[in-house]
Amino acid sequence: WQTDTSIGDWTYVKGHGYRPATEIIQELIDIVSKNGNMLLNVSPMEDGTLDPAAYTLLKEIGTWMKVNGESIYDTEPWATSGIDNLRIVKKGDKTLYISLFNKPSDNKILVPYLAPKNGTSLDINTVSILGSEAKLNWKSNENGLEIEIPKWFSKLREKALETMITNRFRHYSIEIVN
Q: For 127-161, what is the HEC assignment?
């Protein structure tokens, strides 16, 4: 299925603003997590060119896609699309992308779907942020996988990051969108 949406009005209207990049990105993540495609309308001005503000918005989305595009392109729905502000997609058998739309107030991400079964382990070796060498603190228990968001995260200017959880057999990624 496909959803058609626009960065603002469906036709160019001088002086009208555009939706924030974060809102458009979150809509994209939600649609992809439900096995959909998003067609994004960018209305040209009357002379056929784009408004400079539209270019700026598209550059913001492009910056996000450079870091996070692998969580969108060539992905498939997972067992569930997610819950509340959390969305999940997979790529192959080794990658799971978990997207969060809001940073939790306690700086911890809980992924309830990744709880080990009785007496088993998820065999996760490291948790790190894609595009960064930093390792994150995490634990896995009967409640799920809990990842601690580092203090330096709030200082970043990027609107979205990816987190990679690596283990012997599988690779999970968690994408944080703020």
A: EEEECCCCECCEEEECCEEEEECCHHHHHCCCCEE
CA distance 127 to 80: 22
pTM given for the model: 0.81
Handedness of CA 67, 135, 84, 90 (dihedral sign): positive
The span from the CA of 60 to the CA of 158, in Å, is 9
85 to 109, 112, 116, 125: CA distances (angstroms)? 11, 13, 22, 26
At a CB cut-off of 8 Å and minimum separation 6, what does 111 contact? 86, 98, 144, 145, 146, 147, 174
Distance from C-alpha of 57 to C-alpha of 69, rounded to nearest angstrom: 16
Closest CA to 132 of 174, 91, 101: 174
Distance CA 23, CA 162 (A): 17
Q: Which pLDDT tens digit goes with each residue over 119-133?
A: 666 666 667 666 666
- The whole-angstrom separation of Cα 126 and Cα 53 is 40
Of 94, 26, 133, 105, the residue nearest 3 (C-alpha):
26
Per-residue pLDDT tens over the stretch 126-171: 676 666 667 778 888 888 888 887 776 655 434 344 444 443 333 3
